[in-house]
Amino acid sequence: MPMDVAGKAIVVVGGASGLGLATAGLLAKAEAKLAIIDINPSSLERCIATLASPDLIVHGICGDIVPKAEAVKLVREAAGKLGRIDGLVNCAGVYPRRPILDITDEDWDFDWKINVRGTYNTMAAAVELMRGQPLAGKVRGRIVNVSSVDAFKAHPQNAHYAATKSAVVSLTRSFALEFAPDQILVNAIAPAGIATEKAKGSGFLPELASHTPLGRNAELDDITSWIGFMLGEGNNYMTGETVIVSGGYIFA
Q1: Model pTM?
Q2: Active-site positions?
Q3: Neighbours of 20 (CB within 10 A)
Q4: Phi–psi pair at 222, nearest 5 degrees
């Protein structure tokens, strides 16, 4: 897929591990200017050390996106370091598994505040800055949110997670409609079964692969390539969409 992000200022939220780190690595290779926001200082330090090179602009910003005031501060700090924000990727999230009748109030609060409130907070902060920027080509900015195939497929073992990822799809559409006149594109990706190190340790990937028509889990680059496309000059018209990349799991 065409991906032209060279020189673009992109903020990756939750970029110090997993899909976020893989996304940051892809964007770095494509010569984007990066700011990585993450709550884990040690992971963030390792991420910056991994990506560091004389030819790459990358900034690490540590903080919590759940309180709105702090999320706004973090995004504004990223914009200050980069000069503007051409792209925002929301990769921060949690993936708990719990039988549907055992979900607690604490489970709901934990899932919702990170997967939904945090995503909303960074989007809101980013569009406030993007809408005041001059056009870069045909658009002022691009946002990509990470949802999940579980937003579209019943999964009683993580119903609360699926509900939050459905909310991400809805937020994506609402932001896309509201800020289309500002030429800000807002899209999402809904992957299934990404073989991150954390997911490998959880033990559910073999089961998921067995229910996937392609017979395997997604590798990180199966997903990051789509994120890169939606952030780049190859995408000048798609907005409000959620791209499902599940190896056919959505139909199984």
Answers
A1: 0.95
A2: 161
A3: 27
A4: -65, -25
